Amino acid sequence: MGAGAWQPLTGPSHQLALEILLDGPLSRAELARRVDLSAGSLTRLTKPMLESGLLVEVSAGPSDPRVGRPSQPLDIVPTSHYFVGVKVTGDVALGVLTTLRAEVIATEERPLPDHKPEAVADLIVDLARSLAGGQFNISGIGISLGGHINRAGDVLRGDFLAWTDVPFRQLVADRTEAQVVVANDVTAVTEAIHWFGTGRGVSRFCLITIGAGIGYGLVMNDKLVDTTDTGLGLVGHFELDPEGPLCHAGHRGCASAILTTDAITGQVSTALGRRVEYDECLALAEQGDPEASRVVGKAGHALGRLIAAASDFTMPEAVMLGGEGVRLAEVAQADLQTALRTHRHPDASPPPLLLQDPSFTQWARGAAVIAIQTFVLGS
């Protein structure tokens, strides 16, 4: 299943490859400008990458006056390497097979046999083999899950698996030849948006995810903010309503108590005297059901207040909204916008709100992206 590694390049060669990966195809003139190289140096550095098949010349464009011949833009060959991304929840492992540009080729979902780390590691390797199908050499496997994970890939605390201090990256690496990386799920999705999504070219943005938990990712100066506290779910306990319900940790009116899918379905179910799933809660609110409208409206207001706080503290160029519960932002848009205006300076510019794909596949794709990053950057 393993493949020959793309040894991380250094200096200008590395920057050239990264520019083409993220923004290609690019003309030689544009590449030379971005990396500050002469035409001769550019030719010398790209030649081995063309010979290895990592780069390819695409259709010739207009004449390039700097080199005196028709330009031949350069691009990455996305199918030169393949990656598997796996998102692990408390119930399932969802895997995707992607190209070097994180384009999803195949998906597959498996139920977890149990929560034993060894059993989950076996399942992930088997899932990766199944996705590869004997046709693709896998250069890297990325795994994401909710919880606190250190840089070595040890799961210090797995929120939905009841794990503590599990050397999970090593467990998976012992079972495969492919490079393995493990990261917090929100970190992985943030990086996917940053490298290959709506955050590409946005040097300063934040991501708020709504689902089983409340997640927060931040990119500043075109770089992910990643600290030892990443994965602790800090934003989930930010107070949004001092008179709101209690969360499991005893915090009153925090984001986890108001905005998670369980918080919303629990309140609506109690009010209606029957079990109501998340999509039905939103549908009832859209239809004008008074109880569902009340709960969903308060959640929308709380989300607006959370966006206002994030905007005030980080002043982002855009706020990304994601997660499986993100449709709340559409259904409760009026309440969200009211809160956003109320809790910010009246002259503050409203941040663009960019809703992300709510499908669970995006979480697995994020896991693939952290493998792509590690493969390309060497860290």
TrEMBL record:
InterPro entries, from UniProt? Answer: ATPase_NBD, ROK, WH-like_DNA-bd_sf, WH_DNA-bd_sf
Which sequence ranges form a coiled-coil region, renumbered to this chain?
Answer: none
What's one Pfam family here?
ROK
- Organism superkingdom: Bacteria
The record's similarity note reads: Belongs to the ROK (NagC/XylR) family.
Q: What is this protein called?
A: ROK family transcriptional regulator
